[in-house]
């Protein structure tokens, strides 16, 4: 049987440390030993230091069944532990292996049960830890802010663990760290308030902190112990992400040595599935702590993470309440719906207070209203133009405007902005000036990697390095962003109401003008349809009398002139009568009712019977439907259409008029209305070219001269107005020299169903 170690010997430098496979080092720290079991309890992995703890070597253990090496009793204890409800990550298994007592942590890794054994610690320590934890919980209830709680946790963790220094390390959005709270021995230089660059903890290390929330280094000068396995597969390895004994990165070890640290304990602080921070414990000599103390220290971290939301909410609650009060005060003002109201709005101090800004501007109709500390108008316009192309959400917020708009870097009045577009080229912007601040770094963050004649090294100088930060404002809190969004929505509504109010006033004035104009037109129409009738009748009476006197002398030149005057007066009276009919249709107030079109047809035929006989016309009519209509309008419509067919009959053949109907639902091309009944009037007259189909229904439109065919040109316009009044429509189809057809469509009865 061949045996090999799985030590990861890939060359790791500071140029590729962010890609270091720290989860598979193939080595452990020497204060315990590791065994890896397959599903059939075969020892497939074993560390080379097992013989330092029990009387067996790794070569003797590998390839054998666990029961064969350690006995049936130990096998049964571990089997029961694995299959019990015990929270394995919390309570290690206390077991005797080959006469020695150990505390064993067990977890699974890619189907392998990983057993990590450490010599059993003194149980007396557990009682002391319990007492200290109870005291801490009592004191925790007296803290109010998150910072106070973190300071208490730092102090409590140092008392429980005995480390020289305990720091609560908090990350920002880019994972730069700040020592947020600290407890240390009096003879040590404090690190409180120092910042550390995100490069100190690479991405893969942060991911491991989330998976395994506790990491221990007992002696920074330890010699890693290799893990051996049976040589039966290529690239065989063991994932130690959840391991307690996992050997750490040599880069990290060198980093700690440069700080003078001898041992460490690190506890992850997870909040909303993100690495919020760390509890970092440093000791300046080698130090190991029992599983019970580790558990108590881990519990300290859970005290923090369980309180983050509550404490941060409490910290912001007072300011958020002030912001809400400002928002309510703004909403309570009943301002007039006029553009001048913006002058009052912009001067309200609550407009600045609702998001704690130093300035605000509102743009409406290319006019900018400003209050407080704001940029110049041309700078505001330039920013808005750029922001409209830059923003991907409904609004834009930043604390460092120069990051997105370098051209505005010199504008110190607007380092931070909240920008809300309000439609119609309007917007509201809140401003904050730059806040110059100093950040104390633990060493120059730009020199986290140092190159010398010996190669690359993690920085070995942690002297305080001050960085002056310019060009950015204080952070916009979420409640401030929310308040700004709520008011922007309210202001957008107000601006829309101002526009609507102005439009309403404009339409009201236009409506008054239109009403006056219509009134004048009605007076003119009354004159044309009533007052003009009387002189026309007199003209016709006089011309008729003169024509009668000259009946015996038709060759008299005055006779022809009198005939033309009489015909003109007759046409004028016909035109006035048609205008009167058109007005009557337009202003009708009668309600539609069920009308039998068969009765309408019979009434019309009786009225024009003489004209039908004179022209030898044949009128064929099928059964017509009942429709919702107005009786006298339907009679007028039938009269106009049939008389039109008789008027435009072909001189080559007797007129034939066919009337057909249907009650099948139909949708006319290019229209989106469904019509439930239609009636078609077809004739064999002179017809027309289809390109004139739409113009037929226009008032005073004629396709023929007055000498060829008499009429006012209003007939079909009357028909169209009638159908529009009823909610229907009318169409025409024709072929020159062959005939024409007029189809009228009636709307669906609301009480009828098409389904």
TrEMBL record:
Origin species? Flavobacterium procerum
Family in the record: In the N-terminal section; belongs to the phytochrome family.
Q: Which residues form a coiled coil?
A: none
Keyword list, A-Z:
ATP-binding, Chromophore, Kinase, Nucleotide-binding, Phosphoprotein, Photoreceptor protein, Receptor, Sensory transduction, Transferase
Q: Which PANTHER family match?
A: PAC DOMAIN-CONTAINING PROTEIN, PHYTOCHROME-LIKE PROTEIN CPH1
Q: Which SMART domains match?
A: HATPase_c (SM00387)
What GO molecular function annotation could you give as one example from this UniProt entry? ATP binding
The family database entries (Pfam families) matched by this protein are listed as: GAF, HATPase_c, PAS_2, PHY
Name by which UniProt lists this protein: histidine kinase
Do you know which Gene3D superfamilies this protein is assigned to?
1.10.287.130, 3.30.450.270, 3.30.450.40, Histidine kinase-like ATPase, C-terminal domain, PAS domain
Q: Which InterPro entries match?
A: GAF (IPR003018), GAF-like_dom_sf (IPR029016), HATPase_C_sf (IPR036890), HATPase_dom (IPR003594), His_kinase_dom (IPR005467), HisK_dim/P_dom (IPR003661), HisK_dim/P_sf (IPR036097), PAS-like_dom_sf (IPR035965)
* Catalytic reactions of this protein: ATP + protein L-histidine = ADP + protein N-phospho-L-histidine
Q: What class of enzyme is it?
A: transferase
- Where the record annotates domain Phytochrome chromophore attachment site, the positions are 145-302
Look up the EC number in the record and give it: 2.7.13.3
